[in-house]
Amino acid sequence: MLVFWIKYHACAKKFHGIIFAVKNTVLREQTRSNVYPVQKNDPAAGYSLFSHVRDPDVRYHTSWRHLGWFFFFRLLLASFLVLAFFSEASPRVLGSSFPALFSVVSINYLMLVIASGLLLHWRVPSAEQQVHLMVFIDIIAVTLLMHSSGGVTSGLGMLLLVSIIGGSLLMGGQAALLFAALASLAILSEQVYAQIAHSLTTPAFFQAGILGASFFAVALLAHVLSLRIRETEQLATQRGLDLANMAELNEYIIQHMRTGILAVDDQRKIHLVNNSARELLGTPNIAAGQSLALACGALANQLEKSSRDGYQTKSAVFRAVPGGRDLRPGFAQLGSSGAVGTLIFLEDHAGVAQQAQQIKLASLGRLTASIAHEIRNPLGAISHAGQLLEESPDLTQGDRRLTEIIRSNSARVNGIIESILQLSRREPSQTRLIELSGWLEEFGEEFKRDYGLDADTLSVETKGHETLIRADTGQIRQVLTILCENSLNHGMLDNRPLRISIRDGLALETGGSFVDITDNGPGIEANVVRQMFEPFFTTRNTGTGLGLYIARELCECNQVRLEYRQASESGSCFRISFPDPRRRELIT
Q1: Distance CA 453, CA 501 (A)
Q2: In a 10 Å sphere around its CB, with 0-12 CB exposed, 13-18 middle and 19+ buried, how is residue 78 labelled?
Q3: Rounded distance between C-alpha atoms, residue 517 and residue 138, angstroms
Q4: Which entry of 56, 87, 93, 338 is 20 to 30 Å from 143 by CA?
Q5: Starting at the edge strand that comes first in sequence, how are the strands of the sheet with 326-334 ordered?
Q6: Least confident span in 23-27, 227-231, 398-402
Q7: Which has the closest alpha carbon to 495: 461, 522, 533, 476?
Q8: Does 580 or 165 have the greater pLDDT score?
Q9: C-alpha angle 508/511/513, rounded to 5°?
């Protein structure tokens, strides 16, 4: 018997090695024909868009979990046979011919099943080899138990149907036919041995043949069922990968949208929040699972008001934090009932209002540009006449004062006309990646050289790290020049020298860089702060009122935010906030 087992195991191993090689080749060809589509990661992008997709070189391995259920059935069967035989109410058919043989075989069968359980726990040898070993032991044990109980007529041979079905489902392929053939041969061999050794008067070859045919029938059915199950598992796995990819893609899109997105349930618990919402609300630590009232009480109040009137009225503008941005929320009910949740959209109201203003100013700019062009000719004539009048030797001191007023106001009007024409002729931004720290140091040296400033008056403080921004260098240089000129013109104090500081940094909530232009001047009054970015607003008689307006316009062209901040001690601080260049590149 041991020699037979060794030969069987060697042949079966070679046979299944050939089967698995053919199966792997077929699966690999199916994979290449888009059975498992795989998106290759772009190493230049720095991230994996479809991280759930795995290598599709699939090989069928028997499920250890299914093998565990097969072992559990065999353990129950072996235990039942032992307990039923040694109990007082033992069925007469069990061991009716050879009780001693039945007792030895049943106990050994139980011990072998327990030993197979240990091998299953250790997962040694492989699952395929353990299936062969289990089915082979079942065939031998059940055949001997059947022989000791009177042969085929005892009905114990039917127990082999479960073993054949289990082995066929776990292995599939020609292994199902192999198990059926071995079981049929065992049954027929037992019948032949019983006829020769014991000279049975009523041979049961017909019953043995019917039982063998049943083995082949259930093996074929189990083989077809296993193919269907594996095809279903492959389809379910593929659909699972597709859903995981789609979910990750949706998550990526939501997190990189400019509009703030929050999803809350009926208990006002946050389930989803993107980076833009954190930035707009000014709460970088907001996370899923947090109460909306704790994260932003003003937004929670807006949601309650909107939900009471059925999301019909337009939401009001609010500020999440003092000094923060003006936000306008939008609410969309999820599902058909209010118990599902709400989707919240957040937009920067200042940006929306500024877009409307830009449309108006674009039309106004074309009109003023043509008017300025027409005014330029008579203005030049007035200025030239004033200069000629000033050269006359017969002018009195009062007349010379009048000509000086003509000359100074002509120059002021000419400056306004130049600024208006500059706005109307402005070209689109040509953005590129810039290393911020080094570029700021170059600007500082150039500005000090052009305006004759020393190192104490203008200082540039950089972090020294390689921070990248995406902007038009010419336009950002013009913005910095306007802000530094404003500090020179408005920041002078009689009791102390002027100090202008340019510092860079990294905003943790947005991942983008910023530049602060700070001076130690008298600062800006609150009523002036609200109007200083409006066109033609100035606090000096000699100013045009277009400097800060032009600076903000240039920042908007580069998708950069320019805002005024109160300095920590005294003076003024203007901050230029740049978006994360990686996110900017993906959005645009």
Answers
A1: 13
A2: buried
A3: 85
A4: 87
A5: 270-273, 260-264, 341-348, 326-334, 318-319
A6: 23-27
A7: 522
A8: 165
A9: 95
